[in-house]
Design goal:
The complex is a heterodimer. Helix content of chain A is 35%, strand content 17%. Chain A has five helices and six strands. In chain A, strand 3, helix 3 and strand 4 form a beta-alpha-beta unit. Chain A is globular and about 40 Å long. Chain B is α+β, with helices and mostly antiparallel strands. In chain B, 34% of the residues lie in helices and 29% in strands. Chain B has helices at 28-39, 44-64, 93-97, 106-110, 118-125; strands at 12-19, 65-74, 78-87, 128-134, 138-146. Chain B has a five-stranded antiparallel β-sheet, with helices on one face. The longest helix of chain B has 21 residues, at 44-64. The N and C termini of chain B lie far apart (31 Å). The mean pLDDT of chain B is 91. Classes of the chains: A alpha/beta, B alpha+beta. Chain A binds chain B through residues 32-39, 43, 49, 51, 53-56, 58-59, 61-64, 79, 87, 122-124, and chain B through 23-24, 26-28, 30-31, 34, 44, 48, 51-52, 55-56, 59, 110-113, 115, 117-118, 120-121, 123-125.
């Protein structure tokens, strides 16, 4: 699915990355805890989150996240937007809550970047 | 005498300074280190694991120490990241390594960190991880990611 389709499905506003809406995405990960994102998110996935601070962008850069979907109508502060522009990481903003965002994407074929975490494993 | 691998000089080594409490810049050094590793054309997974370890270590310095230095060394077999900080130190390292144990502040939690997962994440992604600390002086993390193709 292209990011432009994600934008339509989520009735989302493009905050950063108007020129990157052709990017293909297939998976997502949703969390507000960046340490969980670091532990479990896979490269090329979308990050669904309600956090808006610059650490979300840094975390996404470290992990090669394809796009950030900010949920619950949160507005990212200017320093977050600036960093995302610098690092060329697209941000979409939707008023849907995390559950609805995930459900709507799932219905259109987007799946989790992992489905279940392993029990007490060493590597993610 | 054949050269022992422990005596081998790294083909690349550089040190970066991290300011404690500077949340706006937190992650900048990790971004930089990731960029350097990418330019070396190391396997994608090696870059990713090293970047995650560096980022957690950098967040720890920003969140808990006055300042610190992160040294990246690369030779043909491995990436070594050393994070040495000047700070309060960790009184009980076994406790600190336990999942969920945290001494974080509201500010740290607001950023999506401080859930007692940092050291666990480093353990998860590093092939070798060593931590030493002296209360009142600081903490040293040594994280190693082995370079094996297809790792």
């Amino acid at each position: 699915m292209k990011l432009s389709e994600v934008q339509q499905i989520l009735d989302a506003e493009i905050v950063v990355g108007l020129d990157q809406m052709q990017r293909e995405v297939h998976t997502a990960f949703g969390a507000d805890l960046m340490s969980d994102v670091l532990a479990f998110a896979r490269p090329g996935t979308m990050l669904l989150t309600g956090l808006t601070n610059p650490q979300v962008i840094r975390t996404s850069e470290i992990l090669d996240i394809a796009a950030i979907i900010i949920v619950r109508g949160k507005v990212p502060p200017p320093e977050t937007v600036k960093l995302a522009e610098e690092l060329k990481i697209p941000i979409l903003k939707t008023r849907y809550i995390l559950f609805e965002t995930a459900g709507r994407l799932y219905r259109w074929g987007i799946v989790g970047c992992v489905d279940k975490v392993d029990a007490g494993k060493k590597r993610g | 005498m054949p050269e022992k691998s422990a005596d081998k000089k790294p083909s690349f080594s550089d040190t970066f300074s991290v300011a404690g409490g500077n949340f706006d810049d937190a992650g900048r050094v990790s971004s930089r280190i990731k960029g350097i590793l990418k330019k070396m054309c190391l396997p994608f997974d090696v870059v990713r694991k090293a970047a995650i370890c560096t980022y957690e270590a950098e967040m720890n310095i920003v969140c808990y120490a006055r300042r610190g230095d992160i040294t990246l060394s690369v030779d043909e077999d491995r990436v070594v990241i050393e994070a040495v900080d000047e700070g309060q130190g960790i009184p009980d390292i076994d406790l600190a390594r336990q999942a969920g144990y945290s001494t974080s502040t509201a500010k740290i939690r607001e950023m999506g960190f401080g859930a007692g997962m940092g050291l666990g994440n480093i353990d998860r992604f590093a092939d070798d991880f060593d931590i030493t600390s002296e209360v009142g002086k600081g903490t040293k993390l040594v994280m190693i990611v082995n370079i094996t193709n297809g790792s």
